[in-house]
C-alpha cells in the first residue's frame, strides 16, 4: 500500500514538472527569448523553392569571368535545397586530398553533368535527323541517353572522393608497419616527437602517412599549433583506424610523459606481425581463386565445347535459335575474354598494396 502511494506521488510530481516546463517554454516564446524549432521543409516544398534559387543565381553570375567560378555560382546552391544528400560528400572532400572547397567541387560536378547531358542530347538529335530515325526511337533516345549521361557523370564525381579516401586508407595501412619502425628508431635517439614527423616527411616514401605527417608539421610550423593539437586534428581526419589509434597513443604518451620509444617499439612489432599475417591470408586466398579460375574458366568451357561439337553432328541443331558454330564463336570470342577481364579486374581490386 505504501509503495502504491509512493508511485502515485512520484507520478503526480513528474506531471507537475512537465506542466511547469511547458508553461515556462510558452512564456519564453511569447517574450521572444526562445525560438521554436522549425520543421525541415518536405521534398516537394524544396522542389518549389528550387526555381527561385535558380533565378537568383542566374542574376548573380553577370560579373563572373572564370569557368570554375561560374560553375560554382550556378550550381553550388543546390546544396542549400538538399543538404542531406551532400553532407556525406562534403565530409569526404574534407578527408580526401582533393584541393577544392566542397561548394566548388559540387558546382563543377553538376556543371559537368549538365554539359555532358546537353552534348548527348545534341548528338542524338543530329543522328535522328541524319539517319531519319522513327519518332518513337528518336524520343526514346532524346529522353534516356541525356538522363543516363547526366546521372553517370554525376555518380562518377560523387563516388570519386570516397574512392580517394579508400585509396588513402590502403596506402596508410600498407606503409604503417615500416613507418612505425622508422619512428621507433628516430625516437630511440631522444629527439622530440615533432622531429620524428619531420623526418618522415623528409624521407617521403610512406605514401599516405607522409601526407598526414606533412599536415602535422604544417600545422605546427605554419599555423603555430603545439604538437598535441596538431596530432589531435590529424587523428580526427585520418581515414585509417590503425593510424588513428597510433596517433592517439602518441598523444597519450606525450601528455602523460611516458616512454615514447618503448611504445613505438611495441607498436612496431604488433604492426609487422599483422602485416605478415594479412599477406599470408592473401596468399591462401589466391590459391582458392586459382582453383575457382581453373574450374570456371578452363574446365567448364572445354566441357561445353566438347558437348557443342557433338551436338553439331546432329542436323539442324541449334542453341536458343542460334547455330552451334555461331554460339561457339560467341562464347570463344565474346564471353571468354569478358570473363577473363572481369576476373583480372577482381584480382586487381582485391590485391593489397605492397
Assign the structural class, choosing from mainly alpha, mainly beta, alpha/beta, alpha+beta, or little secondary structure. Answer: mainly alpha
Q: What spatial form do the alpha-carbon principal axes imply?
A: flat
For the secondary structure, the number of strands is 2
Largest sheet: 2 strands, antiparallel
**Integer tally of domains:** 4
Mean pLDDT rating:
80
Query: In the CATH scheme, what's the topology name of the largest domain?
Result: Receptor-associated Protein
CATH architecture of the largest domain: Up-down Bundle
Count of alpha and pi helical runs: 13
Report the β-strand fraction as a percent range. Answer: under 5%
Radius of gyration: 31 Å
Elements, N to C (H/E) = HHHHHHHHHHHHEEH
N- to C-terminal distance: 74 Å
Looking at the chains present, what oligomeric state does this protein adopt? Answer: single chain
In spatial order, strands of the major sheet run 1-2
Could you walk me through the main structural features you see in this protein, from its secondary elements to its overall organization?
It is a single chain. This protein has 354 residues and is mainly alpha-helical. The protein folds into four domains: 1-36; 62-166, no CATH class; 169-275, Receptor-associated Protein; 277-350. It is built from 13 helices and two strands. The protein has a two-stranded antiparallel sheet with strand order 1-2. Strand 1 (318-319) and strand 2 form a beta hairpin. Helix 7 (135-187) crosses helix 8 (193-203), helix 8 (193-203) crosses helix 9 (208-221) and helix 12 runs antiparallel to helix 13. The relative contact order is 0.05. The model is unreliable at 1-6 (pLDDT under 50).
Amino acid at each position: 500500500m505504501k509503495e502504491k502511494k509512493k508511485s502515485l506521488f512520484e507520478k503526480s510530481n513528474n506531471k507537475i514538472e512537465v506542466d511547469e516546463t511547458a508553461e515556462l517554454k510558452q512564456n519564453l516564446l511569447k517574450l521572444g527569448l526562445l525560438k521554436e524549432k522549425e520543421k525541415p521543409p518536405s521534398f516537394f516544398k524544396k522542389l518549389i523553392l528550387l526555381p527561385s534559387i535558380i533565378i537568383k543565381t542566374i542574376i548573380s553570375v553577370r560579373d563572373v569571368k572564370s569557368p570554375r567560378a561560374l560553375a560554382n555560382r550556378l550550381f553550388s546552391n543546390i546544396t542549400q535545397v538538399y543538404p542531406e544528400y551532400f553532407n556525406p560528400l562534403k565530409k569526404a572532400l574534407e578527408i580526401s586530398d582533393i584541393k577544392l572547397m566542397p561548394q566548388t567541387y559540387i558546382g563543377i560536378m553538376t556543371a559537368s553533368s549538365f554539359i555532358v547531358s546537353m552534348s548527348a542530347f545534341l548528338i542524338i538529335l543530329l543522328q535522328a535527323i541524319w539517319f531519319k530515325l522513327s519518332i518513337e526511337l528518336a524520343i526514346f533516345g532524346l529522353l534516356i541517353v541525356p538522363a543516363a549521361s547526366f546521372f553517370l557523370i554525376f555518380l562518377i564525381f560523387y563516388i570519386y572522393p570516397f574512392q580517394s579516401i579508400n585509396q588513402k586508407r590502403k596506402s596508410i595501412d600498407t606503409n604503417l608497419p615500416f613507418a612505425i619502425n622508422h619512428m621507433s628508431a628516430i625516437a630511440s635517439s631522444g629527439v622530440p616527437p615533432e622531429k620524428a614527423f619531420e623526418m618522415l616527411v623528409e624521407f617521403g616514401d610512406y605514401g599516405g602517412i607522409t601526407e598526414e605527417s606533412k599536415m602535422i608539421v604544417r600545422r605546427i610550423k605554419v599555423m603555430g599549433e603545439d604538437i598535441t593539437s596538431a596530432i589531435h586534428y590529424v587523428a580526427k581526419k585520418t581515414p585509417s583506424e590503425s593510424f588513428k589509434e597510433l596517433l592517439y597513443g602518441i598523444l597519450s604518451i606525450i601528455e602523460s610523459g611516458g616512454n615514447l620509444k618503448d611504445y613505438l617499439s611495441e607498436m612496431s612489432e604488433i604492426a609487422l606481425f599483422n602485416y605478415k599475417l594479412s599477406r599470408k591470408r592473401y596468399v591462401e586466398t589466391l590459391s582458392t581463386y586459382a582453383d575457382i579460375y581453373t574450374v570456371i574458366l578452363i574446365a567448364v568451357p572445354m566441357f561445353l565445347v566438347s558437348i557443342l561439337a557433338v551436338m553439331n553432328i546432329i542436323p539442324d541443331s541449334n542453341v536458343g535459335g542460334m547455330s552451334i558454330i555461331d554460339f561457339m564463336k560467341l562464347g570463344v570470342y565474346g564471353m571468354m575474354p569478358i570473363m577473363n577481364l572481369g576476373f583480372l579486374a577482381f584480382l586487381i581490386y582485391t590485391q593489397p598494396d605492397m
